[in-house]
Structures are given as C-alpha cells and as structure tokens.
Protein 1
Amino acid sequence: MKITEKTITIGGNTNKPITVNRLGYGTMRLPGDMVWGEPKNKHEALEILRTARNKGINFLDTADFYGDDITNHLIAEALHPYYDDLLICTKVGAGRTPDKGWKVFDTPENIRTSIDRNLKTLKMEQLQLVHFRIMPNSETPFKESLQTMFDLQNEGKILHIGLSNVSPEELEIGLSMGNIASVENAFGYGQRTSFSFHGQESRGLQEVMPLCVANNITMIPFWSLQNSLPKNNDKIAVIAKKYNASPAQINIAWLLHYSDLILPIPGTSQLKHFEENINARDIQLTEEDMIFLG
Ligand SMILES: NC(=O)c1ccc[n+]([C@@H]2O[C@H](COP(=O)([O-])OP(=O)(O)OC[C@H]3O[C@@H](n4cnc5c(N)ncnc54)[C@H](OP(=O)(O)O)[C@@H]3O)[C@@H](O)[C@H]2O)c1
C-alpha cells in the first residue's frame, strides 16, 4: 500500500490554498456535559490544545455553538497569538437554547451574527474555513443561507466555504453557486452512510464522496469514533492486535488510508486519548489490511 499523504491542501483550486497536516482535532468534546459550559477539567482542555500545537496538529474544528462559545474561548486562551500554519475551521447554521438544546440559526442575519461572534472570540480578522451546517427543520431556503456565506466571503470575513451535513443534491447546488472547499459529514468505519439520530437525519459522507472526489473537495468526517468504537468490530480488533494498537487508532488509520482527500478530526476530552489518537498517524496499514477491513 502506498504511504498515505501526510498533508492535505484545502481550496487547492483557488488562489488561496491552505495546506495542513493530515490529522486534525475536533474540539466539540472539550466543554462540559451535552457540549455545554466549562470543561470538567479546564487545565486538561487547555493542555490538549497546547499539545496539538507541539505535536504538529494544525487543523482544529470548532463552532461558536460549542459550549456555548466555550471551545472558541479555549482555543484563543490556549493558542492566541496563533502559530503560523494553524487553520481554525468553524461552522455556522446552528445555535443553542438555554436548556442545552440545539436550534436552527441559519437566516442571513443569524449567519452574520455567528460569523462576527467567531471572529471576535477567536480574535481573527478573517475565518479561514467555515462550514455552513445544514440543519433539519430549517425554514430558510438553502440557497439563501449559502448566498450569505458567499457574500461574507466577498466581504473578506471568510476565506474558504465548506458544507456540513450536506446531501448530494445540496452539494450540486452549492457547486453551481461557487467554490466549495470541503464537506463535513458523518463517516467512520462503523457507519458510513446517512442515519437517523434523535429522529433527525445525519448525512453520511459516502453518498457525497463521488462528488467530492470529482471536485477535489476535502472530506472531513465527524463521529468517526463515536459511531464505530461501541460496535467492537472483530476485524478492527484483529488489525489492532497485529499492530499492537488500540481500536481507536485503527479506526483513525483506516480513515487516513481510505482516501487521501479525508482529513480526520477525532474528538476527545482526554489528553491520554488525544495522544493515543495522534499516534495513529504512524500506523502504516497494508493493502491486505485494508481489503480485510473492507
Ligand atoms: N459538522 C457537524 O455537524 C459535526 C457534528 C458532530 C461533531 N463534529 C465535529 O467532529 C468532531 C468529532 O466528533 P465527536 O468528537 O463528536 O466524536 P468522535 O470523534 O467520533 O468520538 C469521540 C468519542 O470517542 C471517544 N474517544 C476518543 N478517542 C478515544 C480513544 N483513543 N479511546 C477510546 N475512546 C475515545 C471520546 O471519549 P473521551 O472524550 O472520553 O475520549 C468520545 O466519546 C467533533 O469534535 C466536532 O469538532 C461536527
């Protein structure tokens, strides 16, 4: 099997490409229970972010609705002024309710509010990559929300635009409106296609993969571990034993070998797990391993 690419270039077909190392970190596990409030152990949360810098992780996935606005504050506290090659990727389209719930927040006005909040908390003048997160039960036409994203890009507040929780039909529409640098959908070894979660559809990466490959769109999978580890897959266990690795590491290595367009962002609240997950970068699966895993 060929050595997997160590880096990935986002926005490669634009005049502002950004190259990052090919394992990122999703920050959603840093706040307290139900992605709400301060972390249980703030010291550990800040330590994870600082370890990211020291271990060559230069892609962080966040949102102003994680916390509420907790992860962005943690990122700024741990890492500002930012290291040169750091890409902080955020998302808009959702918000929070006081009872720790999630709400649709995707009117043009909502999107502008979220972008300004991200810029303020992250202490940035321009957001490098922002996903428009498509929410079930939205009442705003998709094109209207996405047009607002392109307007904000023209105004200089956003560099690259991505889509999250997107269907193939919506991605086609997005591509007809402008450049889409990345897609963030649910995907992992144990769950590759769309599924229902709390009665709402989570869109899988597999369905949009042909379009991403055809258009050189970076694929950022979420819930890669959450939807896979609890299944205790036998084949993952066999390969984990072969490499003296953990199931989480094999899940991440599988993603890295599956496609060079995939940029995994495993999440964790624990420094121990974070360091374990980073070490998955060093596992070289063979072609036979990948065929066996399927
Ligand atoms: N665009 C979207 O709609 C969307 C939706 C969801 C998430 N996201 C992004 O995707 C990122 C990843 O998703 P996620 O964090 O929800 O889930 P995930 O990466 O699939 O898995 C995280 C879960 O796995 C556990 N875990 C992590 N490393 C482990 C290890 N080495 N051994 C055992 N357990 C381990 C974590 O527990 P511990 O905390 O105990 O380690 C946590 O329960 C998020 O952080 C967020 O940035 C985006």
Protein 2
Amino acid sequence: MVEYVKRILLVCCVVTAAASVSSVHAVEKKGLLVHASIYGSTIEASYWVKAIIGHEHHLDVKALPQVITVEPYDYVIIGSLTRNEKPVEPIYEFVEKFRAALAGKEVCYFLTCGDTDETMVLKVPGQDAHLIGGRNYLMDMLQSFPEIKPVVIAGFGGRSVKPTLNLKDSFMVWLVGKLAKEGEVGGGLDIWESLVPERVEAFANEVRVKVLGLGPRENVEQFRGYWQSLQPASLADPSKKKFDPRPFDYRHSTDRIHYVRARMPGTLDDGIALLDTWAREAGIDLREQVKNFFNVYYHGVKSYGGKEMTIHVVPSTLPEDPGSVHFSFRSYDKPDNRAGVETDIDRAAQMITARSK
Ligand SMILES: Cc1cc2nc3c(=O)[nH]c(=O)nc-3n(C[C@H](O)[C@H](O)[C@H](O)COP(=O)(O)O)c2cc1C
C-alpha cells in the first residue's frame, strides 16, 4: 500500500514538472528585430542588441525586405538609420502595413543617427528652431502611429564613413555641417562614429527586463566588438579619434550663436524646477514647446531694451549618464543685442554649477 502511494506521488511530481516545463516554453517570447540600413551601421547595432539580449532567446534579425508578416512574434524591435531627422521612409511603410498587428504587440524602436545630444536644437533657414538628436528623431513616428506605444526607445548615434558615401549623401552631410551653428562635429575625419555604446547596452537590457522579464545582463562591455574596428578615423592622420564628444559643460559664443551646455545631479523634474526658479528671478516667460518623458523644449521669452528675444532652453536626461539632468541654452540673436541674454544664460549656468558641488 505504501509503495502504491509513493508511486502515485512520483507520477504526480513528474506530471507537475512536465507541465511547468511546458509552461516555461509557453511564456518564452518570440522576437523579431527588423532593420533598415544603407551603409551597414544599423545592421551592426542590430546584432549587438541581439547578443546582449542573448542568443538563447528567440530573436530573428531581418532586413525589411525579408519580412512578410509579424504574426509569429510576441515582440518586434524596429531599428532604422536616421535621415532628415526621422527613420527612413521604408520604416514608415513597414509600420503602416502592419500597424494593426503591431498595435497588439510589444514594440521597441531604436535609431542610429549622427547627432546624439538630446538637448540639441537646430535652426536652419526656412524652418522653425526645433529639437533634434537621439530619441527626438522618433517623436514624429510616435505621433504618426499613436496606437503603437513602444516599450523602449533609443537613439544610439551611429557611424558615417565619409569617403564611401554616394555623391548626394556626401553633399547633404557637407551642407548640414556648414549649417550647424555650434560648428561642425566630426570635421576632417574619414570615419566619424557618434555611437554611445552605453545606449545600446541600456536599450538591450531594457528589452530584457521590460519585454522578456529577465534581469539585465552584466559584463555587457564584452559585446562592444560588434562595433569596434581597427580602421583609423583619418587616413591622413591616424592619431585622430573617431568620436570626440563635446564636454557636457561647454560654452561657445560666436556671431551666429551664444550656446551654453551644463549638467547637474538630479531628475528631469529637478531640472524643470531649477529653470522655473531661474525664469521667475530673471523675469523670463518660460513657454513650453515640446514635452517628452526624457526632455522639455522651452522658449524663454523676455524683453531686453524694448526688444523681445527668445532663449532656447532644453533640460534632458541622457541614458549614458543616469542620475544627471543636462541643459542647453541657445540664443541666435546678434552679439550687439544679446548682452542681457548672455547675462541671464550665464546666471542659469551658475545655478546649475552650484547644484553640482
Ligand atoms: C544623407 C544623410 C542624411 C542624414 N541625416 C541625418 C539626420 O537628419 N540626423 C542625424 O542625426 N543623422 C543623420 N545621418 C547620419 C546617419 O543616420 C548615420 O550615419 C547612420 O549611422 C547611418 O546608418 P547606416 O550605416 O545603417 O546606413 C544622415 C546620414 C546621411 C548620409
């Protein structure tokens, strides 16, 4: 009798174990990473993301033309290069084609791009000044497909190999460099890499945590080989660095722009509170233009000597610098008129620096 009961219990245990193994398989999510790339760097970033997520987890990595359906997948990562401050048109067409299906799935977006600073404002002839860089380039996508609410988004930065760009692209890149009021970044380089490895790592780990319910992978630096190469930044001067980011604290004043960049420990809300105090004390009307979960773009408007002027102000958090809030201040007024503006911007920078001590 005792032997019989033991047997029954053993059978029960085996059945329960088998059921729990099959339920583990049932919850293992299947992913698709679909990418659009012209010169290859978005493909490199895609396999890098896959490596951090882990080859033991199902994630198909496919170019856009290789995908005929998203039905088999629980989650979809969409990666694109940036062109004209947005993901490329075929990515919009892909999301449009599968928008109903994607709205019912977990979706993540990432971009490779030249500009990564999410406090950046661009003012070029014929356009209003507007936010650019990193995740800002995904905002049009979010507005175009509001029913798709991405779980994770990122703007990694990217790679530009100037001697191999086609003629049209080469001209565009040259033109954008000339229009940049803060001066061209990556000038004089054959290969310019703006990618911030910590952003790729933070993105892939967020997918692990938020989509797959796993812990973040540690020792992620081991996968940076997906990006590194031995080629020099400049064939004429191999000692040059491929990416020499501007410091987070930076001041640049020319007849085209008065630009100050600063940062302090804290959250985006801390940054907003500091700006409110600064604006109130300086008599500046802080008018919100855009608000995202990671940054805000304000026009700081005030009359200086009877002339109304605008300071472009952006507080932003950056994925590679957790626990800090970054700021940029820009005035496009001419130096003869903007002495008061410069004083007000410098006061803000002092307040931020005081919080950093
Ligand atoms: C013609 C052209 C336009 C671009 N436009 C932008 C842009 O608006 N903003 C930006 O940050 N990067 C821009 N880039 C940089 C690319 O997005 C970046 O180099 C990317 O890593 C290229 O990806 P790929 O190698 O996968 O093609 C542009 C590059 C080219 C060649």
